[in-house]
Design brief:
This protein has one domain: Ribokinase (UDP-N-acetylmuramoyl-L-alanine:D-glutamate ligase, 3-Layer(aba) Sandwich). By secondary structure, the chain is an alpha/beta fold. The two termini are 26 Å apart. A hairpin with a 2-residue loop joins strand 13 and strand 14. The chain has eight helices and 14 strands. The radius of gyration is 18 Å and the shape is globular.
Length: 283
């Protein structure tokens, strides 16, 4: 099974701090690490961990960080041939993580939204099981959703933190599965009635609603170290189970298990061992 993932491909600089800084305040950096990141890339790596082939659509710069991103993704089993190298520097995100695992993000810019849809070959969507979109330029997301739908693929979408400032109406019209946290759900007044809406409630689990169905799962008490990447792991877990037709309830439980394992692990790319995920769901 292969899933096409599209969106940001970044370089993350993660700093654990004693507290998230308030205005006119100062925080102390306790540790620092660097690695590849970006929601689309994180989902692709998580799917690969779960045994799904992931083809990644995104853009990186022609700098050293771009090369390091590609090497990391290749080592994780992600298909990186569709990742476009664009003249400029790879996008850098600075992630501040406090002792409770809460995250604040600072975007240092880069080329992660320079991706050109017209350069994507039609063959990329052939034989794929689904197309997963993450936060990116609305025009890019809409065109990718259109092409995936035309190829007969279900489209899932996780718009992310910048939902409030962007108009994703055209993408939502072609969306089969929509992932939202509580804040994002408040920013989105309505979604098409035939869309499966998966709402993430952090440590309180998640809910799934759609035509004629409603499921709720309370989540898993795995502890919280770092919530960065937890939503991406959640989406990967849901898609893996849902596409394998495990049932909506099982898909929601699997998503919560992957999200919990991610939140209990430092960094945005936890090792999602399928057996460990199954044990958590069944236990």
């Amino acid at each position: 099974m292969r899933v096409v993932c599209a969106g940001h491909v970044n370089w993350d600089v993660t700093m654990r701090v004693d507290s998230l800084p308030a205005p006119d305040a100062e925080s102390v950096v306790e540790s620092r690490r660097e690695s590849g990141g970006g929601s689309a890339a994180n989902v692709a790596v998580a799917l690969s961990d779960l045994g799904v082939t992931a083809s990644l659509l995104g853009s990186v710069g022609t700098d050293e960080r771009g090369e390091r991103v590609r090497r990391e993704l290749t080592a994780a089993g992600v298909e990186v041939d569709p990742v476009q190298a664009v003249e400029g520097r790879t996008a850098v995100k600075y992630l501040l993580v406090d002792g409770d695992g809460e995250v604040a993000v600072v975007d240092d810019g880069g080329v992660n939204e320079a991706f050109r849809v017209e350069a994507v070959p039609e063959a990329l969507f052939e034989d794929a099981a689904a197309c997963h979109l993450t936060g990116q330029r609305p025009e890019t997301a809409a065109r990718l959703a259109e092409r995936a739908s035309e190829a007969g693929l279900p489209v899932s979408f996780d718009p992310g933190r910048r939902l409030g400032g962007r108009d994703y109406t055209a993408t939502l019209e072609r969306c089969d599965v929509l992932f939202l946290n509580s804040r994002e759900a408040d920013q989105l007044p309505a979604v098409p009635g035939d869309t499966l809406v998966v709402r993430k409630h952090g440590a309180d689990g998640a809910t799934l609603e759609g035509p004629g169905l409603a499921f709720e799962h309370p989540g898993f008490g795995a502890g919280c170290v770092d919530t960065s990447g937890a939503g991406d792991a959640f989406a990967a877990g849901f898609l893996d189970a849902w596409l394998r037709e495990a049932g909506s309830g099982r898909a929601l439980a699997t998503a919560n298990a992957c999200g919990a394992l991610a939140a209990a692990t430092p960094g945005s790319r936890p090792d999602l061992d399928p057996e460990r995920v199954r044990e958590l769901v069944d236990g």
